[in-house]
Write a structure and sequence with these properties.
alpha/beta, Rossmann fold, DNA Cyclobutane Dipyrimidine Photolyase, subunit A, domain 3, 3 domains, five-stranded parallel beta sheet, 19 helices, binds flavin-adenine dinucleotide, FAD
Amino acid sequence: MKITLFWHRRDLRFQDNAGLAAALKSGHPVLPLFIYDQTILEKLAKQDARLTFIFDQVERLAKEAHEAGGGLLARYGKVPAVFKQLLKDYDVAAVYTNEDYEPYATERDTAIGELCEKSGVEFKAFKDQVIFAKNEVLTKNGKPSRVFGAYSKAWQAKVKPEDFAPHPSQRLFKKENLALPHPADARRPTLKELGFERHEQPTPPARLPDADVVKHYDKTRDFPADNRGTTHRSVHLRFGTISIRQLMHQAQELNVKLLNEMIWRDFFMMLLWHYPNTSYEAYDPKMRHLPYRNDPEQYRAWCEGRTGYPLVDAGMRQLNENGYMHNRARIAAAGFLVKQLFMDWTLGEHYFSEKLIDYDMSNNIGNWQWMAGTGVVAAPWFRVYSPDSQQKQYDPEYKYVKQWVPEFGTAKYPAPIVDHKFGRERAIDLIRKGRNA
Ligand SMILES: Cc1cc2nc3c(=O)[nH]c(=O)nc-3n(C[C@H](O)[C@H](O)[C@H](O)COP(=O)(O)OP(=O)(O)OC[C@H]3O[C@@H](n4cnc5c(N)ncnc54)[C@H](O)[C@@H]3O)c2cc1C
């Protein structure tokens, strides 16, 4: 019997899933598939909270598929090799999936598309993880926008109720539309077999945030001590355990400020797709050869939250412990590394990429390059935030700091590793020289 494989990646849900809904209408029974990609897994530490999260979601999907009268196939390996084998093991009519805009993913998908074509198998990818992708929102001159305000305005003018409409994947996900894995595939790899140990970090439930949180978001979002001040849904957006359409629809109805923050996500994904080189180098060629300092001792102090700047240290300790950091602290910590310490933004980007449970290449690259003044969109290179002013403004009673830096205010807390005024002037001076070199 011919089947359609539905390949899950950043969309670990059966509800409101664009590609899955299309697969279920493809005329062939659908077998959901997840591949533990060896190329990605090889780079991770043995205890990785993301991998534990993914593993649990795949197991949950397998259970849900079983309850619906189907099954889920999970394999480990290099993706092309896995597909070559799958096309031998099953009579595959089509492979459906959802688009992924990161540089590695676009190359991988092109290769798999070609492999399928050679074998006479249809390969289709659908837009699912953003509202608008690629070239859907352009400037009047037909170029990708480089100004967020203009992009957001055009995005909001373009969006229609149907862009938020759910795809009927859940309704169609029933026995008569599903295929079963071969008995030899009934067993899925365990975390241990994948070479990992369990490492759990706190994540919120995979459902919409409380309406109350969303309604007050514009007033509460900047205060890191307020645990209900933001939605905490970034991990679910990263792995597609909640539909972006549902979240953005809720934001559109209840809080336009939140909608605007989420539009940043579409914006950065669009930019990374257009400029994949920004994943490893400054967008602005003038900012590619700056004389960064990269002092290992100070870098370690930053990583461990021992800089003597409490908002930076609290953020880094929250990151190290929970794999999450409040946006205000991300701004303070990133700004401190790239300006006061004048270190290469790619060092900080890399550290965040190892630690954040919500690590998303486009958001991380976009925000780091913004902070460093090197990006497609960027803060002016001479802007240097003061960690102390941010502390006074966003955590005036040191509530967030006391939560994460228990020794703050005692003799054990370190003195600042760099003077703000000195660091600021040094950064401006070195960037000016580097830009003109
Ligand atoms: C240096 C730096 C690195 C960052 N790295 C990441 C990252 O790897 N992954 C990630 O998801 N976010 C990243 N962000 C953006 C932001 O800090 C997080 O999305 C947010 O803190 C997640 O918490 P939340 O879900 O409660 O956000 P909320 O404030 O509730 O926002 C809701 C959603 O909107 C989106 N969003 C909000 N702010 C931004 C923003 N500035 N840029 C892009 N999207 C945004 C996110 O998808 C977020 O989940 C980074 C920000 C900075 C300054």
